């Protein structure tokens, strides 16, 4: 039997933890719970799993979509929005870049300032 376990956070590596955290603060509207030079933790207003950022020396951004020999993403974030166009406009205003490859009509892949892919998605009409 497994002892009780709970995922308390997700950590994204970045060339600058504070800069990437600032992007996600604007994007999600979450607040900083912890703020150190190389480590920042954001928490959602209603509680739950947080999002942290760690400065990594020699950081290499992932390539989306990756090809042979490319740096692959380790994970991506799925972010539900009610209005995909409005969510995409907000993400762009916060500093995200729309990825060139879009795999689905009800999903938009964006890249954060450190190159991590994240998906905005909505329920199909």
UniProtKB/TrEMBL annotation:
Matches recorded under PANTHER family: CONSERVED PROTEIN (PTHR35908:SF1), HYPOTHETICAL FUSION PROTEIN (PTHR35908)
Protein name: VOC family protein
Organism placement in taxonomy: Bacteria, Bacillati, Actinomycetota, Actinomycetes, Micromonosporales
Entry's transmembrane regions: none
The organism of origin for this protein: Phytohabitans maris
Chain segments carrying region Disordered: 39-66
All residue ranges annotated as the VOC domain in the record: 6-125
One family name in Pfam for this protein: Glyoxalase_6
């Amino acid at each position: 039997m497994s002892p009780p376990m709970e995922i308390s956070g997700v950590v994204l590596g970045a060339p600058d933890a504070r800069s990437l955290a600032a992007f996600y603060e604007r994007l999600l509207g979450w607040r900083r719970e912890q703020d150190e030079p190389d480590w920042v933790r954001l928490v959602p207003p209603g509680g739950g799993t947080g999002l942290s950022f760690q400065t990594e020396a020699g950081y290499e951004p992932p390539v989306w979509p990756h090809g042979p020999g490319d740096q692959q993403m380790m994970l991506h974030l799925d972010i539900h929005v009610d209005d995909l166009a409005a969510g995409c406009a907000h993400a762009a205003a916060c500093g995200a870049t729309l990825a060139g490859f879009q795999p689905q009509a009800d999903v938009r892949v964006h890249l954060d300032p450190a190159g991590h892919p994240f998906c905005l998605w909505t329920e199909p009409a």
